[in-house]
C-alpha cells in the first residue's frame, strides 16, 4: 500500500502488481508497455500523464482526478474508472476483442455460465433418450445439428448478456442430442468386430475438430465475431445435411 506518494516525470517501465495507491499525485508520468495486475488507485491525481500499451487485470481507478492525460492502446475502459473526474482526457485506439478481467463479480458470472451450460446438457440427453426410437436416429442427428446452427447464427442478433447465455444453453441442450444419436448410429451401423475401431475413429475426429476449432477461433475472435459464427454455422449445416443421408438403423439387428 502506497499512501500520499508524489511522483513527477517518472517513466514506469515495469509491471505493477498487488498494489493500492491512496491519495497519490502523479505529474507528467509515463506508463509505457506494462501490465497492471490487481492495482487500485484511490483518491489520486493524474496530471499530464501518458498511458500506452497497457494490459490490466483487476485494476481500477476510484474517485480519482485525471487531467490532460492520454490513454493510447490500453484496455482501461470506462468501467474501470469509478466516480472519477475527467478533465481534457483522451482515449485513443482502445484495445478491442474479448477481454477477461478477474474481478469478483465476473468470477460469479463465469462459473454461472459454465454451470448453466453443463446443466443444459441434461434435458438434451433425456429428450434424445426418450425420442431416439420414435423420431429415428438420423432425424435426431440432422435436426439437432440444424437447430444448433440456428443458435450459432442468432448470435449475430444478440447484444444482451442474457440472450447470449440463453442461446448457449439451448445450443448445449440441442447438440447433446446430436452426439447421442451419432453414438447410437455408430454402434448399430458397424459389426462387433469393427465397433471399437469405429468409436476410436469417432473420438479421434472429435479431438482433432476441437483442436482446429480452438486454434481457428482464437485467431479470429479478437478481430471479428463474424468469422467464428459463420464457420460454426456452415459446419453445423453441412453436418446436419450429411447426417440426413445416413442409413436409418432402427429395427436393425446388431451383427
Automatic annotation (TrEMBL):
Cell compartment(s), UniProt: Membrane
Entry keywords, A to Z: Membrane, Transmembrane, Transmembrane helix, Transport
InterPro entries reported in the protein's UniProt record: LD_SV2 (IPR055415), MFS (IPR011701), MFS_trans_sf (IPR036259)
Transmembrane segments: 109-131, 138-157, 163-185, 197-220, 226-246
Top-level division of the source organism's lineage: Eukaryota
SUPFAM superfamilies noted in UniProt: MFS general substrate transporter, Pentapeptide repeat-like
Protein's membrane topology: Multi-pass membrane protein
Domain SV2A/B/C luminal per the UniProt entry, residue ranges: 1-91
UniProt-listed PANTHER family: SYNAPTIC VESICLE GLYCOPROTEIN 2, SYNAPTIC VESICLE GLYCOPROTEIN 2B
Name this protein carries in UniProt: SV2A/B/C luminal domain-containing protein
Amino acid at each position: 500500500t502506497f499512501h500520499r506518494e508524489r511522483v513527477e516525470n517518472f517513466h514506469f517501465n515495469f509491471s505493477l502488481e498487488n498494489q493500492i495507491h491512496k491519495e497519490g499525485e502523479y505529474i507528467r508520468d509515463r506508463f509505457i508497455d506494462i501490465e497492471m495486475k490487481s492495482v487500485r488507485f484511490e483518491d489520486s491525481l493524474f496530471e499530464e500523464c501518458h498511458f500506452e500499451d497497457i494490459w490490466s487485470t483487476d485494476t481500477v481507478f476510484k474517485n480519482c482526478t485525471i487531467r490532460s492525460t492520454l490513454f493510447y492502446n490500453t484496455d482501461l475502459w470506462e468501467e474501470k474508472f469509478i466516480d472519477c473526474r475527467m478533465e481534457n482526457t483522451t482515449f485513443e485506439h482502445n484495445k478491442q476483442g474479448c477481454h477477461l478481467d478477474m474481478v469478483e463479480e465476473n468470477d460469479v458470472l463465469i462459473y454461472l455460465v459454465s454451470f448453466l451450460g453443463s446443466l443444459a446438457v441434461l434435458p438434451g440427453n433425456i429428450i434424445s433418450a426418450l425420442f431416439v426410437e420414435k423420431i429415428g436416429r438420423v432425424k435426431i442427428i440432422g435436426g439437432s445439428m440444424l437447430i444448433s446452427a440456428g443458435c450459432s447464427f442468432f448470435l449475430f442478433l444478440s447484444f444482451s448478456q442474457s440472450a447470449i447465455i440463453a442461446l448457449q444453453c439451448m445450443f448445449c441442450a440441442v447438440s447433446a442430442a446430436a452426439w447421442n444419436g451419432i453414438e447410437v448410429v455408430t454402434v448399430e451401423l458397424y459389426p462387433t468386430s469393427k465397433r471399437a475401431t469405429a468409436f476410436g475413429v469417432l473420438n479421434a475426429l472429435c479431438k482433432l475438430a476441437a483442436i482446429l476449432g480452438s486454434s481457428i477461433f482464437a485467431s479470429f475472435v479478437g478481430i471479428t465475431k463474424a468469422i467464428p459464427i459463420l464457420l460454426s454455422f456452415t459446419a453445423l449445416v453441412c453436418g446436419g445435411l450429411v447426417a440426413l443421408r445416413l442409413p436409418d438403423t432402427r429395427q436393425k439387428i446388431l451383427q
